[in-house]
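Example 3.2
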Amino acid sequence: MTYDNHTTVEVSIIKDDEDTEGKSEHHYLLLRSLYHALEPECKASMKDVRSSIILDDNRITISIDAYDISVMRAVLNSYIRFISVAYRALEASRF
């Protein structure tokens, strides 16, 4: 099967000029927690989709390959929703 559609999603914490060391550590822990929340979903095997997730120092990169554009859109929307829910949950718990 040929995967004709590809997209990449990047999640990063933007550091402002007044960023302190404590904030940087908080941002890294938040990114790491988001990564661990998304990793099982990204590595799950799906019929027409192949995806991967990578955690760098200041960003999460999710790559998605899909056979059909409608499947690509569905998966992309799901990942965006997962990111939003995980982020709000972590921020609400003052992680």
